[in-house]
Design brief:
By secondary structure, the protein is mainly alpha-helical. It has one domain. It has 20 helices and four strands. Strands 1-4 form a two-stranded antiparallel sheet. Strands 2-3 form a two-stranded antiparallel sheet.
């Protein structure tokens, strides 16, 4: 371990790295419950989704540690799974959505391998990157509130407050309050703990199905057969450029932001402000997306929760390997994931939405040419129930605002291409 992970060179120990890996796992293990719950709304087999979610996270995280010697963990991305379930799959089916994820992974892989990412990064304005993150935050928070029954459809007002006295909304509200308090107290693994407590609360009012024996909690992982290799490329191509681009865009900038932001705080950057292993990390991320699609889950991406393990002293790939191994061990507890009700995972979506909304603080709302496109992006996502439509609205507005203000020189040529493609997204 010393020789492979260069522990002394990074001024760390095996014990520190393992503790860091456990910490990272605790903070992101909620994905084991949330991801299958979201994707199963498309008609996909939920037990198989639990297995796919765990295997994709475990294998890719171990790969990150072995290839890059960085302490980052990966799993099916929040926001991207909502995009898969509520925007892409309803058009041509979940098989086509998996095909789209694989294509986006291949595009991401080529961009990483050929070094095009830096150029794309320069072409997209910072305000738009932040707006996309904030918009996705609102979108998945809305999904969480709807899944909880706290927000319901209403013919007069479009949406309204649900009957919070009912069993499901009550569990979700209590879970949300508990999770929020744990977050405020900076408890590690707050979201996971909140899901488990909500599940227990649900046992007292019939929301959670009580396990009959230990066998209902522990057992062999479910087969991947119902969803593995079920990709529909023909259907994926019918989804259009904007859907594929949205998958690549969100994954790429989510990963870039996580790697650079976390690395800056952890001191991993070199004297030029670059992460030496950046290309390798992006390639592993892309491989994770392709692997996830083949297994039957949505886009796999680098998790910002990795910062929890880094804050505990994790500095090398041993942290990532530890986290990955824990994910794979969780395979034998997949029956536990299947008894967790939607009301217990809904608060996690709202909390993640809160965290993602923090991106708005980096948008210059005093400059209307930046504020208007950003606002459209953020607002259109939840109001149209489509991440792709929100991104398209912003990309149309951005160059138009700059040109109208006589500031066309500030617009990268690629932004005009995105504007044209976004127009086609709406018109065609």
């Amino acid at each position: 371990m010393e020789k492979f992970f260069k522990l002394k060179e990074h001024n760390t120990t095996v014990r520190t790295e393992i503790i860091a890996g456990i910490t990272t796992f605790m903070t992101m293990a909620y994905i084991i419950f949330v991801n299958p719950d979201l994707l199963s709304t498309t008609g996909m087999d939920k037990p198989a989704l639990v297995t796919a979610t765990i295997v994709a996270a475990g294998v890719t995280t171990i790969l990150m540690g072995l290839v890059t010697n960085l302490p980052f963990a990966l799993a099916s991305g929040m926001g991207l799974n909502a995009f898969f379930a509520f925007t892409v799959a309803p058009q041509y089916g979940w098989e086509a959505a998996l095909g789209a994820v694989l294509i986006s992974g291949i595009v991401f892989f080529l961009c990483s391998l050929l070094g095009v990412i830096d150029q794309i990064d320069k072409a997209i304005p910072t305000s738009m990157k932040r707006a996309v993150a904030a918009g996705i935050g609102l979108f998945i928070a809305l999904i969480g509130l709807i899944n909880a029954g706290i927000v319901v459809a209403d013919p007069a007002t479009v949406v309204a407050l649900g009957n919070i006295k009912e069993a499901g909304p009550t569990v979700a509200l209590l879970g949300l309050i508990i999770t929020a308090l744990l977050m405020a107290l900076r408890v590690k693994g707050a979201i996971l703990i909140g899901i488990l407590i909500s599940t227990v609360i649900g046992m007292f009012n019939g929301v959670t199905q009580m396990p009959q024996s230990i066998g209902d909690l522990v057992g062999a992982p479910a087969s991947l057969a119902p969803i593995m290799f079920k990709l529909d490329f023909v259907g994926a191509l019918k989804l259009g450029f904007m859907v594929i681009f949205s998958l690549v865009f969100v994954d790429m900038f989510d990963t870039l932001g996580t790697l650079m932001g976390t690395s800056a705080r952890a001191g991993f950057l070199d004297k030029d402000g670059r992460l030496p292993q950046m290309r390798g990390a992006m390639i592993v991320d892309a491989i994770g997306t392709m692997l996830g699609a083949v297994l039957g889950t949505s886009t796999v991406t680098t998790y910002v929760e990795s910062s929890a393990g880094i804050s505990e002293g994790g500095k090398t790939g041993l942290t990532a390997v530890t986290t990955g191994v824990l994910f794979l061990l969780a395979l034998f507890f997949t029956p536990l994931a299947l008894i967790v009700p939607g009301a217990a995972t809904a608060p996690a979506l709202v909390i993640v939405g809160v965290l993602m909304m923090g991106a708005v603080t980096e948008i210059d709302f005093d400059d209307f040419t930046e504020a208007f496109p950003a606002f459209l992006t953020i607002a259109v996502m939840p109001f149209s129930y489509s991440i792709a439509s929100g991104i398209s609205a912003g990309f149309i507005a951005y160059p138009l605002m700059k040109v109208a203000a006589g500031r066309a020189k500030e617009v990268h040529w690629f932004s005009y291409v995105l504007c044209a493609v976004s127009l086609a997204h709406f018109l065609l």
